[in-house]
Amino acid sequence: MERMAMSQLLEWKNSPQRKPLILRGARQVGKTWLARQFGTQHYDNTLYVNFDAQSVSGPLKQIFEGDLDPQRIVRALDALHGQQTNPGSTLLILDEIQAVPRALTSLKYFEEQAPEYHVIAAGSHLGLNLHPGASLPVGKVNILRLSPLTFTEFLTAVGYAQIATAITDLDWELLAVLHDRVVELLRQYLFVGGMPEAVLRYAESKRLADASVAQRELLELIRADFSKHAPTAHLARLWQVWDSIPVHLAKENKKLVWGTIRPGARARDFELALQWLIDYGVAYPVRRVTKPGLPLAAYVEEGIFKLFSLDVGLLAAMAGLDQATAVSGDALFSEFRGALAEQYVHQQLVAVAPDIRPYYWAGKAAEIDFVMQFGPVIVPIEVKAGEARKSQSLRSYLDRFAPAYAVRMSMSRFRPQDTFTNVPLYAAQMLPAIIAAAV
Fold first, then answer.
1. Residue at which a domain ends, from 93, 114, 145
2. Cα distance between residue 264 and residue 370, in whole Å
3. Closest Cα to residue 92, out of 55, 125, 121?
4. Closest C-alpha among 254, 265, 350, 347 to residue 304
């Protein structure tokens, strides 16, 4: 399974400014596999340390209870695992590092006192304040965020690497010829999603049912993790917010309404549970702005947002979408009034441009699904679930704000127009590159 992040890891390895790397991401997005595969491909040997199994007691934790001198730590880890760590040729992987806070703190000393060692720390709960003192050593580490597989990564995994290359190369001429086939594959991706286990099972059997089994197992694992790590006082409300995501996205107005979760509920009843889900990495708020002004963050309407899930396939599974819907023409794209299409576009954008935050805008009888700031340019992005014929909301926005560049994403082919550019949904992850080239 090929991941885009592998090339980013190689850049990190060869960078003269390399610091210990923290690999962040939700559970089951492939952090451990990626780090170990990187070690196998690009180092003479790898020392893999898993803190999750020994987070309470044992010699592994004791190593980090003394002073945090990197040389002492490396010698102790070598002795414990019967290996030899050599600077530059050995990759040291510290997995589930959040379980031992002082191991997280030790990264500061590796950066300051022993930069010759190549260290990757991975963790699924690094956004959660689980342990006193478990803060990130800001300025002393590099950070790489790993998301579920993008559509092109999915294509490569299921045997369509040439189509993936056509998308990343923005070969519109070839994609026009392959359009119907790519749409069919996108339909499969919306059902399977990008969680590695679901993709792997589907790639091996080409059976959507096998992907469904993996999704159910992943959802059970996520809920079990909630019970294990979330504060008991917030657990019931946390489940309520999580279960409400497909309910809200199914509505015409997709913003989260607390009273839908529980009659009479207010923000203060659920805000801690919501923040836990965000920190855990399975929920993503997209906030509404009053106008497309610079910077966008200054025009946020407090308390008004849409809430997206970690993965489009998990969202489909949470909503109970069946296999028949997945293969029945445009039905899948129109389910939930375009919720799957919006979730998909958001997921691709977060994966390839994690530092560019998407917002949305709504006016009278008009709503733009995403508004993003690229340098000094604010770009509206309208998402259509099927073939685009009318774009009333986008035209309303264009008339009101006259943006320098605008995008409509749909199942239509790539087509520049006078006032906006139509970008096919299957090229969503290339949107930042398309916009950067245009503005």
1. 145
2. 29
3. 121
4. 254
Position 242 pLDDT exceeds 90: yes
Q: At what angle do helices 172-192 and 161-168 cross, to 10 degrees?
A: 120
Amino acid sitting at position 349: L
- In this predicted model, what pLDDT tens digit does every residue of 202-237 receive, in sequence order? 999 999 999 999 999 999 999 999 998 888 998 999
53 band by pLDDT with thresholds 50, 70 and 90? low
Q: State the pTM of this model.
A: 0.94
CATH code of the domain containing 138: 3.40.50
DSSP state of 255: B
What integer pLDDT is reported at residue 122 of this predicted model? 94
3-state helix, strand, coil in the chain (%, to 5): 50, 15, 30
Distance separating alpha carbons of residues 238 and 235, to the nearest angstrom: 5
| Ordered DSSP codes for 356-413 | S--EEEEETTEEEEEEEEETTEEEEEEE-SS-----HHHHHHHHHH--S--EEEESSP
Q: What is the DSSP letter of 418?
A: S
Domain assignment present for 216: no
Query: Which residue segment(s) compose the domain that 344 sits in?
Result: 233-438
The residues near 106 (Cβ < 8 Å, ≥ 6 apart) are 64, 68, 70, 73
39 and 141 assigned to the same domain: yes
Residue 314 lies in a domain: yes
> Is the residue at 103 inside a domain?
yes
Q: Is 356 inside any structural domain?
A: yes
Q: Comparing C-alpha atoms, which of 197, 203, 142 is closest to residue 19? A: 142
Select from 145, 174, 200 the last residue of a domain.
145
| CA separation for the pair 66, 102 (Å, rounded) | 9
Q: Which of 290, 347, 376 is nearest to 146 (CA)?
A: 347
